[in-house]
Amino acid sequence: MFKIAVLASGGGTDFQSIIDGVESGYLKNCEIEILITDCPDIYALERAEKHGIKCKVLDRKIYGGSISDEILKLLQGKVDLIVCAGWLSILKGKLISKFENKIINIHPSLIPSFCGDGMYGIKVHEAAIRKGVKISGCTVHFVDTGTDSGPIIFQKAVPVYFEDTAGELQKRILKEEHIALPKVIRLISENKVSVKQGRVEICK
Question: From the CA atom positions of the chain, what is the Rg in Å?
């Protein structure tokens, strides 16, 4: 069984897409081992409890900069993949090296646009609207020691209309996130993803 840990900081709609993928059989031979959150009062916890998924809260106000070390203690030797699904705390240190190319993140833009420090949530879409871009989208990438800088696995583009608000653009992209994230997890679980010289190759 391919075991997944999900990290989430909010409502957990991306997390729900993984749950749905497992329960529908799309993510065959996959199992969500645990949900880890860095905030005690988020709806993602309710989603996990509803589906019988083990939860662990590592409150960022308590753990601060040591949160990555705590995650490593919990997960080392127990999971095959860590999925950041709306996770806001920065991962660093031994967690990154021990899980090299085994941590993925989904970001609501077409990296390298509108990413990096301070670019998360609605801020990403506000920046895209201000810039006047005609397309945006989402990116699933491996996590490295930088911010949104790891090898890109998959991207999906959506149109940006002149009359769009940031909220409308966010909803359009979120629909694609819910397709992209399970797709990438499935590819990884089937050993179809490899990193060569900093670039991702997907086997057909």
Answer: 16
CATH 3.40.50.150 fits 2-202, yes or no: no
Q: What is the pLDDT of residue 204?
A: 80
As annotated, the binding site includes 60, 105
Percent of the chain whose predicted confidence (pLDDT) is above 70:
100
Average pLDDT, integer, range 149-163: 99
pTM of this prediction? Answer: 0.96
CA angle centred on 153, ends 123 and 4, rounded to 5°: 90
Reported as half-sphere exposure (CB side, CA atoms, 13 A), residue 190 has a value of 13
Domain boundaries, the chain: 2-202
Query: Which residues make up each annotated binding site for (6R)-10-formyltetrahydrofolate?
Result: 60, 105
Residues catalogued as catalytic: 107
